[in-house]
Structure to design on (544 residues):
């Protein structure tokens, strides 16, 4: 099936922002086309944990959990660190719970993740211990018919357990805590969880309302005279949009030149599919679109690329700091063999990665290396493998720490000293350097972990040979900027006026609602919220 010549709304991209905007438009009775240039649906959303963060949400109220608009505002202002913009913050606070309920009425079912406090709880003003984080309920791809095989899924850790379940079982890598019969049943039934479940739910609701969804249809450029009135596809066809075009193609991480220009760290890699490569920025630039840059972006994480398992798959970024580092018996060091942050709390690491040594003319903590021992291998999964399985051949290994250091090209003396110091902290149960395991926000329920320090399950000695190491690279969880939009998700021009007919949601837009900070679940909830808001503006047809 080929796209028609005209729709009310044309959406570029099929992640949460694109499918959310499309669903809001379809529910309003508008004719909608979703154009996805990749062969699979879901973009970066499908690979994510799929968390949604919204204060004062309806499930929170139903569970009897207190919250207030002022508390949410105080917390987001803390998260933004002075780099967010008030109109965007307030638009998100006021409309995220509205959008969440709207999409639930459309059939997108969510559930609370009760064991997930705000990132900065209890230090930040307005932070809460539970109630603001949600996730899509598990759902079968078979409910999509032929579309089920077109939804992207991770080849490292296929989405079969929910966030609530992997937290309760001691982390995503603590596979010994899983019920194999349940996993087998879910596999047989085509059940998806996490970000893949959110995509399936949104796609199902869209298809039920007649949204036209197309894969392998790229957009070459936007078209229009004095504003945007449609798109030209990569095969030369033109599609008109009577109400507007929504850019929801994700960020720019897949384009090395753009990423190097705006992100500024060496060795940066993309945590998203290859198709996420700056399309929105390039297309909107033809119409004089403005960009907004988020300085000192804390939504940055260390991980490594995992090679594909089968032909046709892409290499995939492993968010190791919220996977392997959620469990004990590992540390992260720099080339001097020194630890530099709480490995299990990536916002702490983000700031340390930007430290620059003016005398050695290099970033102090890049390159970085994940170091672990056989105790980790015996108890947990590495890079999506089975618990107890030997790490893949591309992981460096050695019989001693000095030998491992030489193989990796890092200081042997520094590594031995760091491991000895860390092992001392393990025996005390307190990380006196970086307080690993001492924060409320965790990716694993400590009680479910059966190894490491009995006083602090985030800590475990590194002392059993063989020892393992892998170089880690930084990747943005969300990009350090994007298209500048107003609070209605309209793309702004460099002259400060909205560009008629053009909207952006998700990582295509700069996240001015949370600025330099980060809170798990806020980027996907932002995508849904501003995807919803752009349609509300289309329906009004006037004002900012």
């Amino acid at each position: 099936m080929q796209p028609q010549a005209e729709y009310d709304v044309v959406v570029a991209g099929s992640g949460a922002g694109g499918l959310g905007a499309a669903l809001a438009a379809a529910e309003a009775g508008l004719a909608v086309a979703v154009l996805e240039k990749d062969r699979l649906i879901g973009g970066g959303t499908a690979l994510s944990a799929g968390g949604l963060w919204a204060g004062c949400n309806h499930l929170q109220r139903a569970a009897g959990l207190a919250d207030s608009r002022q508390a949410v505002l105080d917390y987001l202002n803390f998260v933004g660190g002075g780099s967010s913009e008030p109109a965007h913050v307030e638009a998100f606070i006021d409309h995220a719970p509205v959008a969440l309920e709207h999409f639930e009425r459309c059939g997108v079912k969510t559930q609370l993740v009760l064991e997930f406090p705000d990132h900065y709880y209890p230090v930040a003003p307005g932070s809460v211990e539970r109630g603001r984080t949600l996730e899509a309920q598990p759902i079968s791809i078979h409910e999509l018919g032929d579309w089920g095989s077109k939804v992207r899924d991770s080849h490292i850790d296929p989405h079969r357990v929910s966030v609530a379940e992997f937290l309760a079982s001691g982390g995503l890598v603590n596979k010994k805590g899983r019920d194999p019969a349940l996993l087998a049943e879910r596999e047989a039934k085509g059940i998806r969880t996490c970000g893949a479940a959110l995509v399936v739910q949104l796609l199902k609701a869209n298809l039920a309302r007649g949204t036209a969804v197309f894969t392998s249809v790229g957009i070459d450029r936007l078209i229009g005279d004095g504003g945007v009135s449609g798109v030209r596809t990569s095969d030369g066809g033109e599609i008109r949009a009577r109400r507007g075009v929504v850019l929801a193609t994700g960020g720019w991480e897949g384009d090395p030149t753009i990423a190097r220009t705006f992100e500024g760290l060496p060795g940066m890699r993309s945590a998203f599919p290859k198709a996420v490569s700056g399309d929105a920025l390039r297309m909107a630039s033809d119409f004089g679109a403005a960009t907004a840059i988020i300085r000192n972006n804390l939504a940055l994480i260390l991980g490594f690329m995992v090679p594909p398992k089968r032909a046709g798959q892409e290499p995939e970024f492993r968010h190791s700091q919220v996977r392997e580092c959620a469990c004990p018996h590992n540390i992260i060091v720099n080339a001097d063999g020194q630890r530099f942050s709480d490995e299990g709390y990536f916002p702490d690491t983000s700031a340390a990665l930007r430290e620059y040594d003016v005398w050695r003319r290099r970033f102090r903590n890049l390159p970085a290396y994940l170091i672990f021992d056989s105790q980790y291998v015996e108890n947990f999964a590495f890079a999506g493998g089975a618990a107890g399985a030997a790490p893949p051949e591309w992981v460096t290994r050695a019989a001693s720490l000095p030998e491992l250091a030489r193989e990796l090209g890092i200081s042997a003396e520094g590594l031995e000293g760091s491991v000895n110091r860390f092992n001392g902290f393990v025996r005390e149960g307190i990380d006196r350097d970086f307080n690993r395991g001492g924060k409320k926000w965790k990716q694993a329920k400590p009680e479910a972990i059966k190894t490491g320090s009995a006083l602090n399950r985030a800590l475990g000695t590194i002392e059993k040979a063989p020892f393992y190491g892998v170089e880690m690279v930084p990747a943005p969880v969300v990009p350090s900027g994007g298209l500048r939009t107003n609070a209605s998700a309209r793309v702004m021009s460099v002259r400060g006026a909205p560009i008629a007919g053009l909207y952006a949601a998700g990582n295509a837009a700069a996240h001015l609602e949370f600025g330099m900070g980060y809170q798990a679940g806020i980027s996907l909830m932002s995508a849904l919220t501003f995807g919803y808001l752009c349609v509300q503006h289309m329906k009004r047809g006037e004002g900012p």
